[in-house]
Amino acid sequence: MPVADVIVGVVSVGLIAVLGRYFFGPRKAGTVRVEGGVQRVDVTVRGGYSPSLIKVRQGTPVELVFDRQEAGECTSRVVFPDLVVGAGLPAHTRTTVRLSPDRPGTYGFACGMNMIHGTLVVEPADGGAPEPGAVPGAAAAPSAGETSAEDAEAADIAERRAEIKDLTRRVAVGAALTAPVLFAVMAHELFGAGWVPGWMLNHWFQLALITPVMFYTGRPVHVTGWLALRHRSADMNSLITLGTSAAYGFSLLVTLAPGLLPEDVQEVYFEAVGVILSLILLGRLMEARAKAGTGEAIRALIGLQARTARVLRDGAETETPVDEVVVGDEIVIRPGEKIPVDAEVLSGSSAVDESMVTGEPMPVTKHAGYGVIGATVNTTGSLRVRAAKVGADTMLAQIIRSVQQAQASKAPIQRLADAISAYFVPAVIALAIATFALWYTIGPAPALTLALVSAVAVLIIACPCALGLATPLSVMVGTGKGARAGILIRSAEALETAHKLDTIVLDKTGTVTVGKPVLTDIRPAAGVDEAELLRLVAAAEADSEHPLAQAIVSGARDRGLQPPTATGFDSVTGKGVHAGADGHTVMVGTARLLHDTGVDTSPLDAVAANLAAEGKTPVLAAVDGHPAGVLAVADTVKNDSAQAIAALRQLDAEVVMLTGDNARTAAAIAAQVGIPRVLAEVLPEHKTDEIRRLQAEGRTVAMVGDGINDAPALAQSDVGLAIGTGTDVAIESADITLISGSLAGVVTAIRLSKATMRNIKQNLFFALVYNAVGIPLAAGALYPLWGIRLSPIIAAAAMALSSLSVVTNASRLRRWHPVPLPEGGDTQTLPEVETATDSTRRRTGPDGRETAVDPVCGMRVDPTTAPEHRDSPAGPLHFCSTRCATAYDAAPDRYAPSLSRRHP
Questions:
Q1: 807 lies in some domain
Q2: Whole-model pTM?
Q3: Residue 198 belongs to a domain
Q4: 95 has which bridge partners?
Q5: Rounded CA gap, 748 and 235, in Å?
């Protein structure tokens, strides 16, 4: 073997070893200073993060001051995915990101394109080693300096426009100077054109044209690429700058000192340098234009808010900037105007279009006492409102924060791209070195030329940028589309998990139903007028604070009736009321109340039983000692619940209703909306157990609820969905919030998740297939078989196409829209109802042994060691204590297990 081949081989092996140590060796941690009880670190952003390793102490607030000394899309945002914190980094500006690390561990951070990386190490307060793989609790408080969302978005738009303008200018210069060189070389070399002037093929002429392309057009690539290498990291720019620098340097040597090289390798590659850099910048320009649309959701949300408010001060209307409105201000809103802040209606009536916030197309009528949401549109009448939430507390501001938080998080599927990209660029550089050595030592003549061309092609065709973009762009578009549809997705993980859901557990009250009792039926006795019956009953109930009474009074008013004033009102605890109205004695309540006063209720019993079988609460009425009729009050089903449940079942999800109501009521509601399975009589504290039980069956479970007692179950489920009209505790515990309160949002969330995940997988395919196929081709894998080599020019085009394919495909998700719910639902379903006391509901304990449920308190007990046992028609019962057994003995009917798991 020639000495030169040996030297090249040894040097190549040495370079690869040095390369591995350079990129993966120990790094020096950044210096942290403590000022006023806060740990502060200055991080320079210029082609990378300096320092890229930061060590801080647990429990002390941290301020990371990012000094971004460059422009361009890549580093315009920093994301701490494990801490769910992200911040925009305007060019040539210092931006402070505040964190509150309360758990030790190692947390990565990266640029928005996931190409520049850093590491934050949180060391335990006691000085011990960080826990490997620790995950954060409430590890971070999202903060991104003092700029508002509007200012940050405006700065981002201005920077993107400046970048597009700069790239356009550089591409134009590169194309104009490269075209003559490319034309001359292609015509002469490929087509043998003898008419090409010799001066166009002159090396000095080509050098003069391509040098500005190298140092002006390619400057953004070279600066970022070399800086990334200096920071012991590397990205797409590093690969391109290494390849073009090698080609330009070799061509320069041939031009300036051709005598130093053998005659058979005195070939220049100026046209390749010019075309590669021009193509790369053209691809980047197209990417920048395409990516400008991926953040449209945030911009659209910001654009929704009103700029001014018509505030009443000192009896006069004053046009006031919305930022100056304070809680308690009275505001006048005319037809066609936007509602400036979240408020409560004081007077007036109007239909308000809330579609821009809730996604619901139908306007909602608002009266005095109703709440209105800022940024919605008042359509018909005038309203006078009192400001309830302003600034960062408004619903719109919370939506914007939620979208930004989701876009700062990382989907689990992205771990694949992260694992690959961490080693991708060093591996490609090592492969390029190995390719050069292989072609030089065993390749055909001219070996040096072929080795150089193949190594450059390997460097240029590799595209780590596409891998970095594959997931974040789709997540950004997906969460934005969700926000526009009234669905707030808190994290990319929830967005990903939602597409795998196979079991949807629905809380009944406030989720499937409205959550407010209303008057549904009026069944007067023979000879009694319906309107007169309702008028008298409403009069008797007017002074009662019981929810059923309020429902009856509201029902009378909604029907245009004016109840008379009652006299002699008296409430009988647990039974009902009696009062005088229009000269009549009126009794309203249970059958027991009427029995106790000698009223024969037999004409009403059958009607009351039928209403009770439908899941309604019957209220019996007597007038002047005679049975007068039955009224029914029920928590009515939401208008679209049946349609939404039908749509969920079409998505191959099992729908389960979870409720504390009795089996009969639960079965009636489930049958009405088409839910096939019901878990009834579940105590609030046991809802979490039911979710765990379903998960133990191997299911991926979503919990949908709205109450405080739903919060633990929402947190336990794989994906918790909170009804936006519910309690703040439930909303905070959920992964997804449905602002409109409609179950249609659950359907939309799952469909959006499926569409987003499909888009991400397509992006990953585009990113991986280009590299998997292109790199071996560039290295010369097909040359031994068919003599095919890949030109660096074609490699540059393929690399640009890879990133452009990913960006374009992610932008395609912007055309996704919610699908209308199916007409009607399956209300013929006979639900299977399981109760908490059902003897068939045996479970497995932590040790694998079978457990049963105490019918009194609902606790799980081991049948073999339970202190007390009883026999019942449904089978043996087991109790956790003598007290529970005694309670059962005193009222066995109350705690009797269901004889059947199926209820009509």
A1: no
A2: 0.68
A3: no
A4: 66
A5: 37
